[in-house]
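Colleagues,

For the teaching module next term, I've prepared a clean inverse folding example: a structure given as tokens, and then the sequence designed for it. I'd like students to try predicting residues themselves before seeing the answer, so please don't circulate the second half yet.
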């Protein structure tokens, strides 16, 4: 793994914990300068410090265009370029079509897909002169819908096709920017553990989740981070507009 991203500048959103933090650790081990970004700046700074120089933290509310512009301007000023963007930040959009009100639906869309649009659009400006790689973190529910998460399914499905449109745009213009999506199954992040524990019957909830994954266990953030590193690196140089499914077989049943 060492050296796969040597000399590259990588921005990871939502990187203070979970999948984003695992990706940051993988990228740092692979030689990248990692920009750890999050609305939780304290958490982002703690992770960047643990990675050591040249990693550093930046505040980034991915729902705000001005925040994106400020973060990318700082990367340009500090590093002179951007080689990799991982659009990882996101959140839940639970609720069925009858349960979910429009305000919560719009908030979920803004966090999970509008943010990816902004990241791709603005990062291309920094990448198009020298090429780069964009990895968009979608979900298995971007491929298989969940009736109990209508907004999340809609948003992550949009990320899947947005990724393909960006990939085609960059290829048509000769930018040498690859753009791929990754689709995790249910991953044992802090948020997911808290969601399970808050259910009426945590044991039954966990059993139901396990039953959805034929491999027999749930993934860890590091499992997804390995796929993100692959897509970001030259190992995936002939992949663009592709979707990498990391779901323990969820999509097979």
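(Answer key — instructors only)
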């Amino acid at each position: 793994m060492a050296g796969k991203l040597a000399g590259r500048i990588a921005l990871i959103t939502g990187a203070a914990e979970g999948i984003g933090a695992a990706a940051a650790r993988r990228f740092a081990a692979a030689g990248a300068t990692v920009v750890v970004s999050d609305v939780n700046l304290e958490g982002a700074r703690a992770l960047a410090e643990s990675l050591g120089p040249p990693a550093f933290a930046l505040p980034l509310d991915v729902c705000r265009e001005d925040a994106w512009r400020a973060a990318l301007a700082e990367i340009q000023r500090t590093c002179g370029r951007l080689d990799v963007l991982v659009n990882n930040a996101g959140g839940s959009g639970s609720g069925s079509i009858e349960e979910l009100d429009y305000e919560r639906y719009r908030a979920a869309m803004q966090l999970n897909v509008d943010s990816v649009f902004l990241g791709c659009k603005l990062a291309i400006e920094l990448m198009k002169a020298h090429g780069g790689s964009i990895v968009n973190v979608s979900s298995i529910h971007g491929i298989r819908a969940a009736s109990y998460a209508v907004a999340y399914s809609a948003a992550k499905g949009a990320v899947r096709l947005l990724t393909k449109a960006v990939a085609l745009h960059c290829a048509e213009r000769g930018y040498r920017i690859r753009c791929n999506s990754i689709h995790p199954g249910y991953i044992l992040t802090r948020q997911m553990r808290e969601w399970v524990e808050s259910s009426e019957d945590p044991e039954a909830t966990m059993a139901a989740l396990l039953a959805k994954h034929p491999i027999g266990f749930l993934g860890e953030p590091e499992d997804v981070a390995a796929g993100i590193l692959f897509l970001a690196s030259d190992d995936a140089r002939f992949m663009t507009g592709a979707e990498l499914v990391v779901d323990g077989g969820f999509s097979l049943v």
